[in-house]
Automatic annotation (TrEMBL):
PANTHER family: 2-DEOXYGLUCOSE-6-PHOSPHATE PHOSPHATASE 2, PSEUDOURIDINE-5'-PHOSPHATASE
Keyword Hydrolase tagged: yes
Pfam families: HAD_2 (PF13419)
UniProt similarity note: Belongs to the HAD-like hydrolase superfamily. CbbY/CbbZ/Gph/YieH family.
KW Hydrolase (keyword) present: yes
Organism: Chitinophaga fulva
Protein name (record): Hexitol phosphatase HxpB
UniProt keyword annotations, A-Z: Hydrolase, Metal-binding
GO molecular function: hydrolase activity; metal ion binding
């Protein structure tokens, strides 16, 4: 019986993907690496250190360690989100929707925990979640299901009783691998990616979710 909902964060609850892109391009520029927006999209959904090591193996810069670059990106994006991060359309609606139904609620993000906590405080939504998990503490990040499984365990929920909300293909793959019913809300420019067919449901906005759609998912 579906009784649990687990949300991704970046690009789903908070409009942070553009800020991640800016922070990455700014910090990578300090080591002489010029990343176009197209290149930054290649690593959406990965953990920051995986993104940094991916580009380090490609560009092989010197002068700053991958750890230093990773920390500078996280510091930068945290500051940007606190300064100008906006809730995604329907954020309050979707949290209230599941709270009213007494669902157990969790968060499973690729972002480091300090960034997650900063976002939750910034958006004043920390109290909605009974479990908050970061993939930084798992052996593998998304698309591996580890962070989703850890969050479900913390909520004392069977993965088969969970709905996962995601925006990226990487995150959707992780949630499906955890055997969760998966709803995707892709960014507008990604909506026609055929890979989203793997999800149980695709929406244009969190506002599009309602009782009828929940009933549809319950039948799966």
């Amino acid at each position: 019986m579906i009784n649990t909902v687990i949300f991704d964060m970046d690009g789903l609850l908070v409009d942070s993907e553009p800020l991640w892109g800016i922070a990455m391009r700014e910090v990578f520029a300090t080591v002489g690496v010029m990343l176009s927006p197209e290149l930054t999209h290649k690593t959406t959904g990965l953990r920051t250190r995986e993104v940094v090591s991916y580009w380090h193996s490609y560009f092989k810069w010197e002068g700053k360690s991958t750890e230093q670059v990773t920390n500078e990106i996280i510091d930068s994006v945290t500051a940007k989100i606190i300064a100008e991060g906006k809730a995604m359309e329907g954020l309050q609606y979707i949290l209230e929707f599941f709270k009213a139904k007494d669902f157990k609620m969790g968060l499973a993000s690729s972002s480091p925990l300090r960034l997650i906590e900063a976002v939750l405080a910034h958006l004043h939504i920390r109290e909605y979640f009974q479990a908050v998990y970061s993939a930084e503490f798992e052996d593998y990040g998304k698309p591996h299901p580890a962070v989703y499984l850890a969050c479900a365990r913390a909520l004392n929920s069977d993965p088969l009783d969970c709905i996962a909300f995601e925006d990226s293909v990487t995150g959707m793959t992780a949630a499906k691998a955890a055997r969760m019913t998966t709803v995707v809300v892709p960014e507008p420019h990604n909506r026609h990616d055929p890979r989203y067919a793997l999800a149980n449901m695709q929406l244009d906005s969190l506002l599009d979710f309602n009782d009828q759609r929940l009933a549809l998912l319950m039948q799966h």
